[in-house]
Amino acid sequence: MKLTVVIVNYNVRHFLEQALLSVRKAIARIDAEVWVVDNNSADDSVAMVQTKFPEVRLIANTDNTGFAVANNQAIRQSTGEYVLLLNPDTVVEEDTFEKCVQFMDAQPEAGGLGVRMIDGSGKFLPESKRGFPSPWTAFCKTFGLSRIFPRSKVFNHYHLGYLDEHQTHEVEVLAGAFMLLRRSALDKAGLLDEAFFMYGEDIDLSYRILLAGYKNYYFPETSIIHYKGESTKKGSLNYVRVFYQAMIIFARKHFTGRRAALFVLMLQAAIWFRAALTLLSNLARRAYLPLLDSVLIFSGLALLKNFWASYYHHDAGYYDSSFLWVNAPLYTVLWLAGVYFSGGYEEQGNLRRLMRGLVVGTLFIAAVYGFLDMAYRSSRALILLGAAWSATGMIALRTALHLARYGNLNVGRESQRQVVIVGSLEESRRVLRLLQQAQAPVHCIGMVSPHNHFEPADFLGSVSKLQDIALIYRINEIIFCAADVPSQEIMRQMTKIGPHIAYKIVPEDSLSIIGSQSKNAPGELYTIEVRFDIAQDLHRRNKRLLDLALAGLLLFSLPVHLLFVKNRTGLITNILQVLFAQKTWVGYASGADSGHTLPALRPGVLSPLDALPQGSLRPDDAATIQRLNMLYAKNYRAENDLEIVLKGYRRLGVRQ
Is 163 helix (H, G, I), strand (E, B) or coil? Predict the structure, then answer.
């Protein structure tokens, strides 16, 4: 066996399918085997591999063992002269493996090889070639000097920015996304160190390959797409912690004495520094609009106070100064809370949710107003004027932000992307049907032929003119049909046209259209597969709020409920478990395998079965229960939970 390809997967089924299709084409002329190790994915990855790729050797773990352990599982059972560690969120060219194996055959001193990688927008990924993270290198990366001086040998040794991306070079570190290893080098250097759960294991293995007397190469004669946002969520504190902890493990393993102590100290400082930056960045991204809204509302209330006092009461000092430090902050918080809980900050252009939140906030303010001390009951007119001001101002603010970002005034309306499809007539029409079924917000301008000979009545032109077509028709998005357009041509066009256009790929015979515009962001997906409302942050938050509200209400009026609910002790236990997030009032019905097909939920006190009419026969077959669970997850609304709780009221004390 010449080549073994090992892919470790965790919950990226659509990307894995695309990767395996590209691998299938790339091994067509090589004696190769393909292994997939699934780390207990909950998205039906295992079933997809078994159904669509029967030739793949599959290891289905029952827990998430980590990247190093999973790769080693397959490596130990494989037989290839070369072993390729490949990420599932990648696409390889049709001749990638041939070129890489030929290079390794011609360079017997080569122990490992990495290739040129681009992201989903066609931009070169600098981590394609890297140096070892010495204390100075780590310092420059952590504090941004490598970004300020990207081509400096002194300041950007981590990404070897001074080496030409289009020339072959000896390098120190190979990227774990594509790591081609000589079996004999692995035998001498050892497998991946399983002390690394994720991140750092590629650096450690690259270092040990060099210590074993081999060389590592960066090989740009072939390219791959690495979406990366699917496997590294860089905007999270967990990423910062895991990445730098991996660097600490590496430092303690390979450095000694004062050098090791200095490196570990620097990395520990980097954890706090990067964590603080991540926190501030995430906070700024989430809080900037609520902060602008709060300033807008508060300042408006201050102006309205003076205006109404002078205009209506003819006395500029009519309202007490306490209005500004009691009423105005309270009203502002309640209006912002109404917008937040209605989802107005998750879909910032959704004016319907904004208005709904302001109405709810106004009702809360009206309710609170009656409980305020007489000294703080300023004026109901100011509440109504403030609500009108908040609605007008917040809509104007969102309109201005939308105009600055998109150059139009279509706030609240999802702008349609101008799309062309590159592929054969048959495949392009199939993709067009997929877009229509998925209700994707796109307008298809036309189709582009993958060949130079085509019927002008059917196509806008050939792929060789794709850049001109994109310019003439002001295209926002290009969709490539992988069945007709080689991966090499797709990557060439992406690099040529540039990152200002979104790119997506339709794998052969797939029901999904996949792409990603940033290495730090999750991918975009058009699919006709079922989407579950319960998976949306808004609905999950509303579900938790309803759980807390019902638990609080039941606890407050507990003596009454103990007269009617079966199992009094169970009711008290369930209330406490819901309050402490160990249970939810409504979950999936047991009797069906929901865990690997539906979004995860806490165990439920009740289930959709409790919504069935009293006296009706409760289904006991797994298929019916599964369908009920699926409908519950697909069409979730908080009022559905409330209905189930009311119908199953007497069973609230049942302990599942």
Answer: coil
- 250 in any annotated domain: no
Alpha helices by DSSP H, listed for 30-106, are 45-52, 67-77, 96-106
Residue-number span of the structural domain to which 300 is assigned: 285-406
Phi/psi-derived region of residue 78, left when phi > 0, alpha when psi is between -120 and 50, beta in every other case: beta
Check which CATH number belongs to the domain holding 432 and give it.
Answer: 3.40.50.720
> Does residue 363 fall inside a structural domain?
yes
pLDDT over 90 (residue 105): yes
Q: Are residues 558 and 496 in the same domain?
A: no
pLDDT digits (tens, 9 = 90+) for 428-487: 999 998 888 877 888 899 999 999 888 888 999 999 999 999 999 999 899 999 999 999
**How far is Cα 471 from Cα 52, in angstroms, rounded to an integer?**
38
**Distance from C-alpha of 233 to C-alpha of 240, rounded to nearest angstrom:** 9
What CATH number does residue 184 fall under?
3.90.550.10
pLDDT in tens, 530-571: 568 888 878 888 899 899 999 999 998 998 888 888 888 889
**Residue that terminates a domain, selected from 470, 501, 527:** 527
How do 82-86 and 178-182 pair as beta strands?
Answer: antiparallel
Per DSSP, the residues of 378-445 read --HHHHHHHHHHHHHHHHHHHHHHHHHHHSS--TTSPPPEEEEEES-HHHHHHHHHHHHHTT-SEEEE
Cα–Cα distances (Å) from 651 to 395, 546, 560, 567, 571, in that order, read 45, 18, 15, 8, 9
Specify the residue for token string 């609170």. Answer: 368
Total domains in the chain come to: 4
CA 43 to centroid of chain Cα atoms: 14
Residue 4 tokens, joined: 């073994």
pLDDT band at 594 (very low <50, low <70, confident <90, very high): very low
Q: Do residues 60 and 201 both lie within one domain? A: yes
Question: Is pLDDT of 114 > 70?
Answer: yes
- Which residues does residue 504 pair with via DSSP β-bridges, in sequence order? 479, 515
- Write the CA distances from 138 to 154, 193, 267, 655, integer angstroms: 12, 21, 8, 53
- On whether residue 245 sits in a domain, the answer given is no
Residues 225 and 302 in one domain: no
Alpha-carbon span 179 to 638, nearest angstrom? 47
One domain for residues 68 and 178? yes
Q: Any idea what DSSP says for residue 173?
A: B
- Measure the CA–CA gap between 595 and 604, rounded to whole angstroms: 13
Looking at 527, 553, 585, the residue that finishes a domain is 527
What sign does the CA torsion over 540, 435, 518, 288 have?
A: negative
Please give the pLDDT value at position 342. Answer: 85
Are 307 and 398 in the same domain?
yes
Looking at the structure, do residues 590 and 522 belong to the same domain, yes or no?
A: no
The verdict on residue 191 lying in a domain is: yes
Contact 464, 477 (CB under 8 A): no
Separation in Å, CA 334 to CA 181, 377, 618: 59, 16, 43
